[in-house]
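Budget justification note: compute hours in this period were largely spent on complex prediction jobs such as the one shown. Inputs:
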Amino acid sequence: MDAGARRLRDFAMHYVIIGAGPAGVTAAEAIRQGDPGGAISLIGDEPEAPYSRMAIPYLLTGQIDEAGTHLRPAVDHYARLGIDTLSGCRVTNIDPLGHQLSLDDGRRRGFDRLLIATGSHPSRPPIDGLDLPGVHHCWTLDDARRIAALAKPGAKVVLMGAGFVGTIVLEALARRRVALTVVEMGDRMVPRMMDDIAGTMLKRWCESRGVAVRTSTRIVGIDAQAPSLGVRLEGGETLPADLVVVSTGVRPNLDFLAGSGIATAEGVLVDDHLQTNMPGIYAAGDVCQSADMVSGAAEVHAIQPTAAEHGRVAAANMVGNDLPFIGSLNMNVLDTLGLVSTSFGHWQGNGGSSVRHQDGWRYLRLEFDHAEDRLIGAQTVGLTEHVGVLRGLIQSKRRLGPWKDILMSHPEQFMQGYVATVGV
Amino acid sequence: MQKALLITPQLCTGCRQCEMACSYEKEGVFNPARSRIRVFDFHAEARFVPYTCTQCDQAWCKSACPVDAIQIDFATGAKVVYENRCVGCKVCTIACPFGTVNYNADTGKVVKCDLCGGDPACAKACPTRAITYVDAEQTGYDKMRVWAMKTDTAHQAQA
Ligand SMILES: Cc1cc2nc3c(=O)[nH]c(=O)nc-3n(C[C@H](O)[C@H](O)[C@H](O)COP(=O)(O)OP(=O)(O)OC[C@H]3O[C@@H](n4cnc5c(N)ncnc54)[C@H](O)[C@@H]3O)c2cc1C
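Corresponding output:
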């Protein structure tokens, strides 16, 4: 490197990103776009190339191989963009005022702008036996390898938790033709994403396809019971299992921030530009607690689209633009053994008008704001056409005028309502 | 120069030739239900509105994709689904605020308009020029993006 180039590098902004998931990778790419000369380091503690947790179920079904889970297929993607990747490297501490961070191998690194994109970890329910061999979360590629080794056709598998991620994993396990029992504490499947009608439809659908679903049932412990495991239920019953998959929610990865002065609650707290209370330090993805699009309240939405959107917006602000974050919309789509369901925003409603329409295996629920003629939440089961406009209607806060009444009596016309109110 | 689909609903008579042409071009069948462009019929006002992906700059579908299966065709600007990489997770179908990415249960993949690689069948089939494929700048590329803008006003309103 000649002296001129070195001088340039000395002046270049150094961006450091902690966490190489979708939030971190999207941010690294967007920073490169916004600051072609900046130095970018992407630090992740997992050993693999940056990958997508969301792709794990498709790895388990054999639809893709491990390379198919990579967020970017080209092996030289990061090098080509001049993004310096450090994998298998854990950040243990941040000193915001000294602009330094420490790595688990003892090294320290300086930064000018920092992005915290450390994602979340599976929460551990307070029961015995979680450390026994044959008990796994389904969160990392490494978890997936262990699950794949045990989830052989016919193997007895107990899935603890039918939340959103659990239900996705359910699909993958069922496709591996294991003998599957799902145990959920709530009174229906996906209780935080689906109402009683939708959650119960999913349960019946699963049962009709050979998956045992035990709702309102609590697991109190797991015992080693040669040759495999015994899953103890409240009430005394024990389910035999070759594999137990624990999926009881996730929590933001915040431990390494203790003592740093960076403000946290459930996640890292940010302003409307995704900046933390420390200037120059931002947060994105599952670890970030940002404004909800509908209510404005600070919430953690641990979903892929929010991770990517956070990454894009944080990056824009890190390179010096002024891009406010419009808020995050909680939304999910599930395919449960062929029954597709979605949920968007405040599907529980806020006291405004509400319509629910069920017809066989199809269901649609729309929730309107209590004060204005606009949509704030929705749920669908058995529909796949144009469901994205449910997001569009909520996000654009579009006033529906006469269409509100039409949708109250014909909710299935949501796409027409969208096109009609575009005003073309 | 890049081109864009320009839709003029006032010229649409609801003949659905575009839907037929699209489904034939893309799926090999004449089946409007398989078309990536849809004509919405507002009987009360005797109005028809053809509607498809605007190839918006924001590319919500592309950024939400967990496996990089949606790419930009640099010749046309279209956001294109690469079926060999798509795992069928459907996250793009809820991320797209225009509702123009749909899941096809037969193939287990998502489908969207890809501008037919630069020669869109819908525009060729439209007898009334309600759908044309025109130089983006010359005829107000922005006009075509009006849908995109409408949804994006949420950004500006809060800015
Ligand atoms: C099986 C499964 C299915 C899913 N399906 C869906 C779905 O259908 N739809 C959806 O929207 N979402 C889904 N999700 C959730 C989605 O994967 C997450 O919301 C997304 O990964 C969040 O991205 P992120 O970049 O914030 O965090 P992550 O992807 O978790 O990436 C963060 C990275 O940072 C690393 N890290 C943490 N702490 C440190 C540290 N101190 N130093 C260095 N590195 C660190 C982590 O190990 C990790 O590699 C699914 C998740 C799983 C597990």
